[in-house]
Amino acid sequence: MTKTDTHALLFTDLAEIARTLGHAHRLMLLEHIAQGERSVERLAELTDLTVANASQHLQHLRRAGFVETRRDGKRVLYRLGSGPIEAMLASLRGYADHMRSEIRQLAADPNNAEGRHDSISREELLERIRAGDITLLDVRSAEEYALGHLPGALNIPAEELEQRLSELPPKQDVVAYCRGPYCVLSTNAAALLGARNFRVLRLAAGFPDWKAAGLSIEV
């Protein structure tokens, strides 16, 4: 086989990967699976797909190695396959952020921009965790929290936050996080806490990006 043939095969493989990922429903399913292991029924519910439709897309992802399965009694659970899949999803989000004007406008919105004055980077957060002077607040659902969360994080789902403010230490900075840079749950939580005179920061990246960076998580 010539060098040209090898090169052509490589790009054929890349094109096949791109074809597998070239459907919004498959990317949505991968984003939810990146939060933690889930059944096809739950994935269908989260993505507003029928079970049959979700199952069909999951089979495509499985054949390409993006997801793996295991049996738990009568249920089949899906998890991410081996390899840097979470990092790949983060790269896709980053490229979309660069190319699509709608997302660039969202990033420029003071309520969402990663560079806003009340955001905190992963590196800064690691320093604050080591110092022990913050409260980590996970505002995702209890289900997502149980599948994996940042070490020591307190889980108060966004819709329960206003009724459970007494659970937050009033004299510590609060760092809220959710599913990623375009998830509004932590943005809304930061606004609510700020209005109640809490010192609050928002993690610029969410749980999947933290996990993709190889940082410690708790289950």
TrEMBL record:
Keywords: DNA-binding, Transcription, Transcription regulation. InterPro entries: ArsR-like_HTH, HTH_ArsR_DNA-bd_dom, Metal_resp_trans_reg, Rhodanese-like_dom, Rhodanese-like_dom_sf, Thiosulphate_STrfase_CS, WH-like_DNA-bd_sf, WH_DNA-bd_sf. Residues 130-219 form the Rhodanese domain. Residues 6-100 form the HTH arsR-type domain. Pfam families: HTH_20, Rhodanese. SUPFAM superfamilies: Rhodanese/Cell cycle control phosphatase, Winged helix' DNA-binding domain. This is Rhodanese-related sulfurtransferase/predicted transcriptional regulator. The lineage of its organism: Bacteria, Pseudomonadati, Pseudomonadota, Alphaproteobacteria, Hyphomicrobiales.
